[in-house]
Amino acid sequence: MKRLFITLSIIGLTSISFAQEGTQATGKQDTTILKNIEVVKEYNPVIKESGKISTMPELKDIKTEKKNSDISVWTVPYPIKPGETQTLDFASVEPEKRKFAKERHAKLGFGNYASFYGDFYTPLFKNEKNILDFSANHNSTFGKVKLTPKLYEELPSELASRATFNDTEGKLSYSHKFKSMKLSTFVLGNYTLFKRYGYDDEKLDLANNGIKETDNDSLKQSYFRLCPNIRFTSNNYLSKWDYDCQVNYQLLKTRDELSEHTIHTILKGSYKFDKSSFNLIYDMHNIIMDLPEGNDIYTFENRETLNNYTMIKLIPSYRFRVELGEINVGVKGTFCINQGKKGSVTPDVYGKVRLIRDLMYVYAGVTGDYTVNNYQKITKENPYISTDTRVEDTYMPIDAYVGLSAKIARRIGMDVHAGYKLIENPYFFVNRYDTLTDRIRNTFDVVYDEKAGLFNAGIRLNYQYMERFNATFIGEFNKWALSNIEEAWHKPKWKMNVQTSYLPTEFLKIRLGYLLETGKRALVKTSNVALPNSHDLFVGADFSLFDWLSFYVNFDNVISQEYENWYGYTCHRFNVMGGASIVF
Length: 584
Description:
mainly beta, Maltoporin, Chain A, 22-stranded antiparallel β-barrel, 3-stranded mixed sheet, 3 helices, about 5% helix, about 55% strand
């Protein structure tokens, strides 16, 4: 079965990618994409260093041109891979005009809670047609989090729990430009070790016995990820044919010997007319599981054949563009093999219309989707999920939305949108509960609703004054309509994100951010528990001493609020991280 999956992926890739090899035209030269450092929340920095070359974008799921409110939880205590969650997109360590910095860079950071950060990038070989580069990133903390009676009333006193998190990643990338196409490939390796430090009945037992702190050595978990990727893209802009094809292999291995192999293949092709194009997308997931002995994690209907299964998605569409706007008309067809789930067909229609040239657009769409919830995806969303919990795939038959984008003043942009989703089999994270012993754990299971509706709305405002001052406001609202469960567990109802940056001089940048989340609730045993609203205030500054040397400092959770991202997992209070960045 494994050979069949791999063979199907390779045949599909090569047949489409090399079909254009004979096309004759001159493409544009490779250019260096200059990226800036983004300094974000403690233990979750995202580095996009000035002068860093993007040789290969990561494999992404196909997305339509829709404005969509993100319904996922914004933060997790210690994300498995830095940069996977949303960031505040704060300004660069380097002043804006210093984009002539050399390509190599290194960055170090140190903070309280015994936290460390490191980032390194260097091109190994580069000419007009080839780029070979290497990057590495380290992100860790070894501090303790205090579990207090304020949050957990049963605790007789404070208990310090060591919240170890250690994430290291390396990536080797290569790209080569042919006459009519570009080859890109990379190999990424990631190792994450962490401790389940959250509150549960075992922590309560320790506190009742007079214990003041615990190292959680028996609650370690680790994820090893290996991801090679190969991609072919057309670069012949004169040809009517265009394609983008890639195959991505993902290995996830846990500390308790669970292995998941995912082969993700995406083939995109289009034929361009004068003002329109015909497009076809082929998206395939092959999932192969190696289970620990005696552990059957599957809960789907067809349990006998679920160690290997396949999901294939076909998306044909026709896009038409005129001066007034554009419209895309298509369908999404999904086919499941060896999974015990039926296929589906949903519409994929969306478009935008200009109301005032360069000032105001209205957009709308009706689509749907099918999401593969493999361990790669789920462990990034919630690293503390129990290993023996296999999250079922999600089907969304309806996703309708409408929005307005406008420039309401010389320097102010606005986007407002609203939408409704109908979701079959949505999942929500709940703390594991042993009904026989009446005890909760600090790992997570999922519960499902048969059918759920989600209304979401949002607004984004941005103000930009030259390169000196920038301010962004983002507000989101989510309202669930559930059929057979009480709440959308761990999902926020209201979210607000305010971020600003100011350059008083060309050598100094000051940053300020505020994040608010409200309305999250958790299922604890059989009780409906409200999680504290999160008020996270961030202050930072970047100072450039020389063209090649910069310093930064970040203060996060400035008001030292005690809040949870998942029930039982209290975030660090006031924390600081500072360090230096060099380019050479």
